[in-house]
Amino acid sequence: MKKRIAIFASGSGSNAQKIMEHFKYSDLAEVAIVLSNNPDAYVLQRADNFEIPSHIFDKTVFYQTNEIVDLLKRLEVDMVILAGFLLLVPENLLQAFPNKIINIHPALLPKFGGKGMYGDRVHKAVLAAGEKEHGITIHFVNEHFDEGEVIYQGRFAVDAGDTLEIIKFKGQQLEHLHYPKVIENLLKKYN
Ligand code: GRF
């Protein structure tokens, strides 16, 4: 049986897109559902383009009910992928998928992570700190923002004159290249 992936995303979903592309013809796994807390998220359109079902939920449902866990269980999901998902994962979801929830962060954690550190804010902070190196982190999710065990880090040089757009682009290229592969490698270890 193919492994089943659920993707949580709050925004554009370019990483979700790469994951859906990667597993479209895979014998190993498939994206079973895309979930979002944001009804206007472009990721929902992307899911539609792949004919992958999506589900929109609000914070109350996420934090005060077991609906989302029940849905994932019903769909026999094996792995939960966060791809630009801005809400903290609640305890019931963590317990239902121990070591099976993965996130991607656009910086070299533990630097430039934590609550409020997302999107352009991360890259602005990196430039303001005069970092010579920047990168991405793929990590297991725990009850704190951006703190679970690191699975993979990709690095690149911040060159003199690099703008926010440039370092953001360099990071995105790395994310798109590595996130699907890291997911695939983890799934191969599941029985
Ligand atoms: C990525 O930079 C990821 O590292 C972070 O949120 C961003 C999502 O971008 N968690 P996209 O929606 O996949 O384009």
TrEMBL record:
This is Phosphoribosylglycinamide formyltransferase. GO terms for molecular function: phosphoribosylglycinamide formyltransferase activity. The keyword Transferase applies. One of its GO terms (cellular component) is cytosol. The active site is at residue 105. Pfam families: Formyl_trans_N. It catalyses: N(1)-(5-phospho-beta-D-ribosyl)glycinamide + (6R)-10-formyltetrahydrofolate = N(2)-formyl-N(1)-(5-phospho-beta-D-ribosyl)glycinamide + (6S)-5,6,7,8-tetrahydrofolate + H(+). N(1)-(5-phospho-beta-D-ribosyl)glycinamide binds at residues 13-15. Belongs to the GART family. Pathway: Purine metabolism; IMP biosynthesis via de novo pathway; N(2)-formyl-N(1)-(5-phospho-D-ribosyl)glycinamide from N(1)-(5-phospho-D-ribosyl)glycinamide (10-formyl THF route): step 1/1. HAMAP family: PurN. It comes from Sphingobacterium corticibacter. The gene is purN. Residues 3-183 form the Formyl transferase N-terminal domain. The record marks 146 as: Raises pKa of active site His. It comes from the Bacteria.
